Protein: Endonuclease/exonuclease/phosphatase domain-containing protein
Amino acid sequence: MSIHGDFNVHHQLWLLSSFTDQPGEQAYNFSILQDLEQLVQHPTRIPDRLGDTPNILDLFLTTNPSAYSVKLFSPLGSSDHKLISVTCPNAPVPPRDPPKRRCFWHFNSAKWEDLRQYYSDFPWNDYCFHVKDPSLCAERILRS
Structure:
């Protein structure tokens, strides 16, 4: 499980904030109860006013920390938050099905009269009507 976003919470011990607020305490308790580890280890908010300090406000919480890699990048435009890139290099990539050979029927160029004649002449009684299993009928017809 993973939970991520701009939590905007503060916690002195957990997030190295200068203070702990109630939402920070609640987020911390929730992460402990759910066995979540917080992977963002460096400040994500850049101070934009005198007296502000860098803070970790953007969190990535997960129950599987070894499966993820977190990187921080410079903010875009006028944002005061760094970009966070989370990759999951250990995630299995589902195998693609190999290309399948497909048969295309060209109905417009079919010889319909010949097909009708084939069905009319086929010895159906010899192959089908004394066997109750349709799969056996199909097998017998295909072998003919």
